[in-house]
Protein: Xylose isomerase
Organism: Alteromonas macleodii
Amino acid sequence: MNLSVCTITFRHQLISIAEIAKWSVANGFQGIELWGAHATNLEDQPEYGKEWLSSYALKTSMLSDYLPLFEGNDALYFKVHRLCRLAKHWGATKIRTFAGNEGSAAIPEDRKTLLFERLQLVCDWLSDYGLNLVIETHPNTYADSVGSTIELFEKVNKDNLQLNYDVLHVWESGADIISSCEQLAPYINHFHFKNISSSKHLSVFAPDNVYAAAGSREGMVPIFDGAVDYQRFIEYLYSKTTLRNIDSSLEWFGNNCKNILSQDRYKLQKMSQAATTAQAI
């Protein structure tokens, strides 16, 4: 499994990209998922980029940001092309965004049509750079269910549109995480792993809370300690040759970052070793 650390984990800490890189490689990660805000803030330090990161035997697995899909074309064009330049500088092949900010059951038909058209446009712009656009499964977006996500991919119909399968958010929708993964597998090129102690705490991942320095972190737990059955899901991934080597990120928003991430990384590594041994027998 090609596993990344999300730099958004350290959004409220005084920690440099160099420290993140050193810690990541020391703890067995293969890459970093670079938050767009961090990439933008490092623009005036061009010595940091793909060559620098490769000196640590790391790669930028994905540049994660938020596109203004419903703003004017000029604003969208500026944001997309800036992110494309940053992605190329960091050696990322994909840019992650969300499918709007309205649930699939609530969005008006004209807004849905516009959403699909804007995503087609963004895909065309990214194609000029040889980049992929990655949509994340997420509540209160059009990719909030298996059916609407499949519809989105069919309507946009672009080869460089791909999917970030956020396991927790698929579980949050009420869908089975393994059967959903089977259905969405043709589109998946990234996984997000995070967990929660109980569904009653899911509100901690609401943007207004999770990005606030003083926001609640109640219910955020290591991936193998929560309500989502990651033991079963990871075993399933390791059983699938088409899925087990897809880029994945540990998306931790809580406290005690380094200890939690190293703990989860260690357990995933043990599962990988066990799966490799079983397949060799």
